[in-house]
User: Fold these one by one.
Assistant:
Number 1:
Amino acid sequence: MTFQVYDTTLRDGAQREGVSYSVVDKLAVARLLDEFGVGFIEGGWPGAVPKDTEFFRRARTDLDLNHAVLVAFGATRRAGLGVDNDPQVHSLLAAETPVVTLVAKADLRHVQRALRTTADENLAMIHDTVTYLVAEGRRVFVDGEHFFDGYRDNPTYASSVVEAALAAGAERFVLCDTNGGMLPSQVTAVIADLTARLGVAPEQLGIHGQDDTACAVANTIAAVEAGVRHVQGTANGYGERPGNADLFAVVANLQLKLGLPVLPAGCLERMVRVSRGIADIANIAPDDHQAYVGAAAFAHKAGLHASAIKVDPLFYNHVDPQAVGNHMRILVTEMAGRASIELKSRELGLALADHPEALNRVTKRVKDLEAAGWSFEAADASFELLVRSELPDGAPARPFTLESYRILVEHREDNAVVSEATVKIRIGGERMIATAEGNGPVNALDEALRVGLARHYPELRDFELADYKVRILEGSHGTGAVTRVLVETADGAGRDWTTVGVHPNVVEASWGALVDALTYGLDRART
């Protein structure tokens, strides 16, 4: 039986706090998911949510899917209402999707107290709706809401719900851990008991996990190891409360760890790009520490790790990062040894290994600077300048020589606060004095420096201060504390780089990071 990867980012994932997709957003996410190679994309609940109804209408002409089919989600007919007369069921047909997923109560307590109907009527609702949709030419999946809790309370009734759905023609019955309270061993035990009780093949079942115990991915894998061949999840684990099973981690584990070819060939390598693209659409910062796709997923900090990685990267990488479209990174910190410095330099295209004395000097400088509060793990540009300064060719020359800078902060009568900076610099034999205002001391200083450099370095017009972070270093307190500043700069070509500065004076720390940023950027622009 074919393995099914089912994505519910656009329905269940959209229940995450702070997420609100427009119809255009939903179409864009669907294209990315199709590119990733999932088999099914649950687009939403037509008839119940106007935005979802519009999505399905536009999808008919605006989506050209290569791998996935669209799924409309809805409920069984209402209690006491014939399926022919239920407008919500007709909305599912009107969505014109080849597949429909129905949510059905699998916990008798919910049937009686939430639906306020009888056990038999609930089974009839499932049977009637599935039969009707199958007769209309739809493939049908049934999501058994609260299945695991219902099975624990009354396994006989929960089993009868599964039996009713499959007997009516449902292609898969999906076991939903709606409250997210299960553990992997419990999932495995329930599946084994259920299949023995009903005599059904586990391939007819699916799994849908919530992450309230941080076990959604593990529960999903456990279900597959128990024979389930239909998995549901969301991009990046988005969803209500702590979220859903992260479909990216699920798929990577199935394909790379269990050897199950659940995606079309070549699709797994797109995972990082798809993950970050969906995060951008959802307006959620990517989780750097997310398994497989995070920026830190294959980042190594300890010198001991780097020494082993020099021999074989797989000594400390559990898979080849490129298999999921990621890459290995070496972080340069006070924990770094010669191997870390050498590997990081190689990553930046610098042959430090060919210059052992320079390697020794760089290693010592990094350790000394890190002990003083510097941090190069997030400031590759400053680290590259440091390494190049120890190599025979040397670092790029500073674009100017500083004579002095001065900053004034004026609090005016109307409560406006204005910062003004003046820089005096020399470029070649020419002395330049430039003044500018800004919305803070550092912004004013940055603007004044750019004014002074603009005539000689027109490339600066494409540079933009993209991010600015200030941190008070541990062990220093109060207004006289030592501060570390990280400056992220971007250019018009879509490139960005980060530099660092440290000083008891936050402005001087910022100055150091700004000068490194301009030096690095101008050198790159001219090479």
Number 2:
Amino acid sequence: MNPNPAFLALGCAGALLLSACASASSSSTAEPAVFQAPYSSTHRDGDDLLTGGLGLDGLRAAAAPAFADPAAPTAAELRRRALWSSWRGIADLRPHGAYGRLYGDPAAVPGREFHALATLPGARQPHRVMLQLPDAFDAARRCVVVAASSGSRGIYGAIAVAGAWGLPRGCAVAYTDKGAGSDYFDLDAGLGIGIDGRVAARGETLAFDPGPGAPDHGVAFKHAHSQDNPEADWGRHLRQAGEFALATLNEALPDAAPFTFDNTRVIAVGISNGGGAVLRAAEHGDWLDAVVAGEPSIHVDAPGARALYDYTTEAALLMPCAIADVDAPPRSPLSALADGQRGPRCAALRAAGLIEGEDPAAQARSAHARLREGGWSEAAIRAGALSVDFDLFRAVAATYASAYGRYPAGAHPCGFAFSAQNPDFSPRAATPAERAAWWSDAGGIPPGAGVGLVDPGLAPPDPTLAGLQCLRALWTGQGEDARRVRAGVAELVVGPPRAGLPVVIVHGLDDGLIPLAFTSAPYQAAARAAGRDVRLWQVRHAQHFDGFLALPDYGARYVPLLPYVHAALDRVAAHLDGEGALPADAVIQARPGAALDAAALALPRP
């Protein structure tokens, strides 16, 4: 990946004020966007945009692609490993799964890749944007797919969602990490991550720098510590990715220019909070032609809706106890460890007056009932066992509390911090090899990639209880920190999509991390009450994590969601071509099994 000085101009003189130079159509919501440190790469023999030359067999490999020098990987090595990590974190790649058979084309897609940093007006920190331009791009049928990474993943975090659908069809695909991502900053060493993913020092262009007031120890990362509350701007991040796509196409394909929102089809797609991002973009979506959102994390002011922070902190406290009352919950490699924590958690909740019961079984029934009263379905609670086993609820809550309250590194209201850790969970400095792999390996929210969650309240017999009670109090309490966090959440409320914009939502009925009842269902109801035609596919036996279907018990119980997202994109594209109506609402009767086939997935057909 070599810097391309000619790309610095990007078709416009000066500082790339894209509201002027990208011909953004008649949108009243266009904002000046400044892109920094752009660079491009051209495909190499055996390398490709979709898998970095790994192919489907390479993506299925259990071990990550190795670095020749673990402490100083090249940009090309980091890119390939980031692609591997992003695919495996999102997609169901089992040989007997559906990818490459019933949906998706794993063939190599040669092309060019363009990267830059974009900054929203008033933001402290940039977000990454990227355009993948396949050699097969057809300027006569110009198509751009715009996507936001799911979770807090890096810039390749939507490759299995948007890239896997758009690139084989000859569409250019634009991405944003939406102000999150894996650009960690090592506070001990004073080192961050440069534009090409390699470790870089202050004085160079960094994708995230917490600033001179940050602590001297630990790890800071953009989602938690940017002080921008990035979730409030996810729709604007997506818009800037679209602007970057047009500007890049104008530079890369001058004979076909100009590329504008008026003459280029733009479809937005994302899953999880990437799905929430595309629904945020749909509010002012006069630049969009269609939207497909999978299992979206979205906050709507409507009956039944609940904010992510509310139901996540509730689940973090109650679900470890409640799972003991669930009939045959799925098992993961960490289930036995979670089993050992259930008794102390139930007893602690009873002592705090949060549940009732004089014995563990009665206490578990009470916790279970509390979740059901809060709107959790039985299927969501059962699938939520995985998030309990992997401590995901606590990790999400700690990060989002910092983001919503706009706290800098070292100022978490519950004292949480992030650091490389010793076996006893005490913090230590990261090694050069750990630091070098963060950009490619990290999911954007610790724990993972050698960075852990430092909880100052750890104490037996229920080590995480005190920290979780503090996190929950930021939602239910009345102190200044609680008001600050809730004010950040209030910035997230989404309105209906623009009139006439085709919107299709796909959500698993068994989603135990982002339950449909709190998100997609009330969003559709509110949108329709406002006169918008939003379609919803509800998939039986689909939970939140396709990547975890590699766990035997989860693979036996659940189907992947991505085939339905790709099918919805197919239907939307056909509709835009005048070849069919938008898909109708559906409850899809999928059947999990040892070998998925078209009948088991029951994909809706035109």
Number 3:
Amino acid sequence: MIPKRSQTDEEELDLFLNSIQIDNPLIKNIELPSYPGVVFSIDSSNPSVVSSSGVVTRGDQDVYVNLTVKATKNSVVRTKSFPNILVPKKDASAESLIDDYLNRLVISSPVTANITLPPLAGATVTLTSSNQAVITNGGIVTRGTTDQSVSLVVTVTKDGVTKTKIFLGLLVPKKEGGAEGEVDDYLAGLSITSPLTANIILPPFTGGTATLSSSNPAVVSNSGVVTRGTTDQTVSITVNATKDGVTKSRTFSNLMVPKDDVALTAELDAALNAINLGNLINLSTNISLPSASNGINVSWSSNQPGVISNTGVIQQDPTESKPFILTASVTKSGLTRTKTFNGSVAANVQLVLADDVTTIKSTFGTLYPVFDLSLPSSLNGTGLTWTSSNPSLMTSAGVVQETDVVSPFTLTVGNASTTQIMNMSTQDVDTGLLGGLLDTLGTIVNPVVNALGDNSQSATLPSQYGGLLGIGAKSITNWESSHPDLVTIQGYNVTIKRSQQDHLIVLRAKYEGINQPIPIIAKLSKQ
């Protein structure tokens, strides 16, 4: 075996140099490699654009530079040239903005005052200290009894690009003797934390004075009294310390004074208590619901929107009053309080007649009276007016005139607010002995009509008629009710259920020997 010879210094340096590449165009600093025993350096044709350490400074114009990288080892020097490298002008990219910010940033040594980093629009700028007891990450400088050396790292992040700049070995000199040092120590020892819920009491300053200045005295007074309101507030507090003619200050910014829920609750409750809707029992008209109270918006909700809407519009039931609950809600600063109002919407008795006639017509259609009708004269305390379209067939009092002709006509009933029409017709009835009984047929149902008009809960319908003057009795084969939910018929037994209103109803019976069922118009009294 003949082993390979060792590389000469020249060959080794050439190898290192060949591995070095410089971007063209060049927009970031050049980082040279590090090898034991080898020293790298850069010769630049324009050091203000590319320095000897590789720092790139982009200006307002494109610039071409010639660069030579030099490698030295054991007095052997080798070079590599990079001609015509373009350093483009700076642009508005995040990287260039950060580079420009960091290049301009200066933190001079010695450091004797608090450090405030200038802002960069759209970027996050942070400070990291190697010794927070001397310089905090917030830039607060605390000078002690000896000189201190501190390193700081400034980090800037924008649009996903992060870069840093290091300030090594910054001197923080020991505090000066006398009043200035005491003022510095006093201010450095202060602590005002956020959120701020209690009064600020400044510690005593021996031999000196300390005063407080607030950006909003209505929230935090200049004597430190905290007044929490109904909304969150942000204030800045500046403490001024003075001794022996030396005055310095320290500011605590963006302190949050949270809202006082107790005060806010009281304000909202006062707004609710100021709402007066008056008497809500048995409403018969719409009501006006206020949209604001004590300057606070009010929203409304109804648990029965079919009875009263969220805007106070009522819908009356024709038979009974309907209860409801209205809820008022007020909201401020995220807190909501409510109050309920109980009431009822009165029944609209004027609608009962219309509903009853509609039910009668939908159940029976045309009515065929044979004997005189005992027409009710009132309903729910309001008089009823009856009108026949053909008095020669039946008078407006319900008296049926004898006729052998089947003829249609109408019977109109009205009260104070509505007029309703029922379709009627005569029918051809045998005018023999049966016809002679027509005027007496109505009397057999009088007990049932009377039961409907009083407080009875049941009644028995007749099952036959006739049987006088030697004529055999005739059957009533079937009974029907226009309102089976109120007047229920099973065979000849009647069960009566009453509501809170009077009702106009019709019972209809099929009489043997008479073609069409005969109606009976009656009033069902309320409960």
Number 4:
Amino acid sequence: MATLLYRIGRTAFRRRWLVALLWAVILGAVGLGAAKAPAASDDGTSFMPGIEAQQAFDLIGERFPGSDANGANARIVFVAPDGEKVTAPANRAAIDTLVAEAADEPRVAGAANPFTAGAVSKDGSTAYVTVNYRVKADDLTDTDKAALEKAIDEARASGLTVEVGGTALATQPAAGGSSEVIGIALAAVVLLITFGSLAAAGLPLLTAVIGVAISMASIIALGSAFGLSLTTGTLATMLGLAVGIDYALFVVSRYREERADGHAPHEAAGVAVGTAGSAVVFAGLTVVIALAGLSVIGVPMLTKMGLCAAGAVVVAVLIALTLVPALLGMWPNAVLSRATRKRGRAVTVTDTTAAAAAEGPATGDADNGGSRWARFVLRRPVAVLAACVAGLGVLALPAAQLEMGMPGAESKPVSSTERRAYDALADGFGAGFNGPLTIVADVRGADDPKAAAREIAQEIGATRGVVSVSPAQFNKAGDTALFSAVPATGPNDEDTKDVVRTIRSERPGIERETGATFEVTGSTAMNIDIAQALQDALVPYLAVILGLALILLLVVFRSVLVPVKAAFGFLLSVLAALGAVVAVFQWGWGAGLLGVEQAGPIMSLMPIFLVGIVFGLAMDYEVFLVARMREAYVHGDRAPQAVVTGFRHSARVVAAAAVIMIAVFSGFIGSGESMIKTIGFGLAVAVLFDAFVVRMALVPAVLALLGDRAWWLPRWLDRLLPRVDVEGAGLAASPVHDAGRAGGEPAPQEPARI
């Protein structure tokens, strides 16, 4: 592996213009494909096949043809001024006018007048009208939205308070906006401080952006054929940027080390790709495993997102192995620090060994913060290990109380009209009105279909926690009935989940009595079923990715205990991050500091995303940090000294990579959307815990306690496992490596320092 990548790095360095041209052609080709590709089709009807709410939803589409449940809608809520009622002549006239104007629009399927549809609260203070469109929200034009907004403004001018919920006028959540830009800017500052060179800071950002551009253009180009969309590529963008910066950072850092040790530029590029590049390859494989493992969840959208993101990671790896050394070949000295260039290390010398000797000890051997920290941990391994486990364990305790759901309008800021519409409906009609349950009854097997539907409605209406049930609506064939049940509590309330469970538990008896069958769906039931399914899938998903990663790390490190330690540390950091998310966003501890106005259940997809993304980044740091320790151990260092050597060379780079990721993910916290805040906060604290607590403290403490046993491998397993040479041991004796020395001089007899 190391020798192959060494050759690739040298070739890319020497053939730099050809490599750069090839990547430019690839970018142009996929960009042209994206521009010419037809828009991706979006069926939008099957989020998670197999759950009851989805099956009932599909049955409605089958039995009630022409009813597009995915069509856009706007729920317009009217609140009368204090002391008045919406039924007052002037208020009623304003509402009638709005309904008439909305119904006249060509894309509107219907808008029922609240005074004839029974959509007025008992006290007369509140009324609502639901405007249903024939097309999806994404297909509404600016003209469609402007017409509705004009009618709403006219109603407001009459003195009514008018708020709008639904999907028609809803603003799409932004991925951080200016805060995300600030995060990327902070990443650039961290790179500049780490490298002391604008070129070295800019190169990882440039190559990461190129990789993301290629990945996203590919997703758009293939979108129509595979049902992909920009939403599908969200995870690919996030991870492509993250690992793209990390992987280029690792290679550039190793290149600078080799140049500081006196190697010629082309040789330094080859060694950097042969060693750091090996770590990049296997770190990338662990990320791909985590992302491809999303397919075990059983959610088609998650499977597509995972595979697209895995493709983005593969692109990032290929760019780090080829384009990065090619760009280093174009500007071999620009990435070096100003101090190094001033000392004369930047010039190409004819005798690298003599030059290095004349300049004194290599900078890579000098004591630095990483080596000093490693020695501190080695002197107190038990105390450090106990502090790490205890601290992360305490932070993980709230994770046991994790409640998953799908936050809706109630989680939006009070400044948004969606939130105010939600609150107005809850005040006027009850908290459960915002999350009615939809019941679809298949009455084909009943002797009297209408009587069966009435009995089902009566039984559900008598369920504790249900405040009302609407009259049943039958399809044209008369074999299916549809009605809604309004619970007493809000959509994300635990009591509402109990209502759904009670209805389903009592279903067998009701079906025996009526001869009909029924299922519960609607947005509330759908969210409950999705949350439960994802919660059930979380442990199998963890088992799959940990099992495959353990095998991969076993091959990389040729050790039994190091992969187990890596998996244990990852679990600690993820559980601690989940605990922090629960404490802030579910319990509300310190939520106001982040601008979270309403605590509640954690978004169902969030734990899955957190596990997948953080697992990939954690294994990045693990492979890069421990591979350098393994390299030192293979080259003759004793186990404790190998830990110090690994930290001396890698700690600063890993810390910089982690700070960059924390800065980028923290940008999402600035979003106005609670869900995006949760994702940004969760990822940022997870990287913080994993990089600085687990990798920087727990890992060296465990290795100090294990000593040489850390690298133990049974002989039979040693013979069975393939040898991949991630640490670059084979480079010392490689003829290519010898020939690459300045002036073609033969290598000295003592082992070369890699």
